[in-house]
């Protein structure tokens, strides 16, 4: 998907925090997959792509999620889907597949792949759980922001949700809680109202020039 400069500016400046959606609007699995594919071009440290998703769209899935999202039940009840974004602490296990495919499609020469994997895989495997947790949360958050912009380009709205039972989310949706770290939840759908605008500090307030 390509944007003109003014189109992209509109995506940023006209974004609203949407809590209530039109429950009659359902996003097809095909379009959801397309949006995830587009969002997956987000930056990723050494291209390990640690983001993992559970798309909660069925009534049964939303009922299971409802007690775990605290005060965010309106989004759950009305959205087309709730996208649970996790970070994979063992993301490096996909390293060879990622780099081998890069070679196959002509994005990387074999010798670069070999050099990179020989350096990256032992390095990632040496990380403490705390350090890996930081890496995967940064990458998964970059993905989430890109997905929010992609959704806007497709005509949908989103709300980033951090208020949920993080210690229960993975296991509730059949993921290994020792491996998959909840990062955030995105509700997605067609807004039922204009949503909320919010004030942002001027960059001069938090920027230092040297």
From TrEMBL:
Q: Tell me where in this chain the Nitroreductase domain is found.
A: 13-190
The reply to whether Oxidoreductase figures as a keyword in the UniProt entry is yes
Q: Source organism's superkingdom?
A: Bacteria
- Which CDD domains does the UniProt entry name for this protein? MhqN-like
In terms of InterPro entries, this protein maps to:
Nitroreductase (IPR029479), Nitroreductase-like (IPR000415)
UniProt entry keywords in alphabetical sequence: Oxidoreductase
Tell me which Pfam families the record gives: Nitroreductase
Give the family this protein belongs to, as stated in its UniProt record: Belongs to the nitroreductase family.
Q: Which PANTHER family has this protein been placed in? A: NAD(P)H NITROREDUCTASE YDGI-RELATED, NADH DEHYDROGENASE_NAD(P)H NITROREDUCTASE XCC3605-RELATED
Name of the protein described by the UniProt record: Nitroreductase family protein
């Amino acid at each position: 998907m390509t944007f003109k400069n003014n189109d992209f500016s509109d995506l940023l400046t006209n974004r609203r925090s949407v809590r209530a959606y039109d429950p009659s609007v359902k996003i097809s699995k095909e379009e959801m997959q397309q949006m995830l594919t587009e969002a997956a071009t987000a930056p990723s440290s050494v291209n390990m792509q640690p983001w993992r998703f559970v798309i909660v769209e069925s009534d049964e899935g939303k009922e299971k999620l409802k007690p775990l999202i605290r005060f965010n039940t309106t989004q759950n009840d009305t959205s087309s889907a709730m996208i649970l974004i996790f970070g994979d602490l063992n993301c490096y296990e996909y390293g060879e597949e990622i780099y081998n495919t890069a070679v196959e499609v002509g994005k990387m020469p074999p010798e670069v792949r070999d050099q990179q994997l020989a350096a990256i895989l032992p390095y990632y495997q040496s990380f403490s759980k705390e350090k890996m947790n930081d890496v995967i949360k940064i990458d998964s958050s970059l993905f989430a922001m890109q997905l929010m912009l992609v959704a806007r380009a497709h005509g949908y709205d989103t709300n980033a949700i951090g208020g949920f039972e993080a210690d229960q989310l993975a296991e509730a949706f059949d993921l290994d809680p020792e491996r998959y770290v909840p990062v955030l939840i995105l509700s997605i759908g067609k807004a039922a109202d204009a949503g909320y605008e919010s004030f942002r500090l001027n960059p001069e307030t938090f920027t230092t020039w040297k």
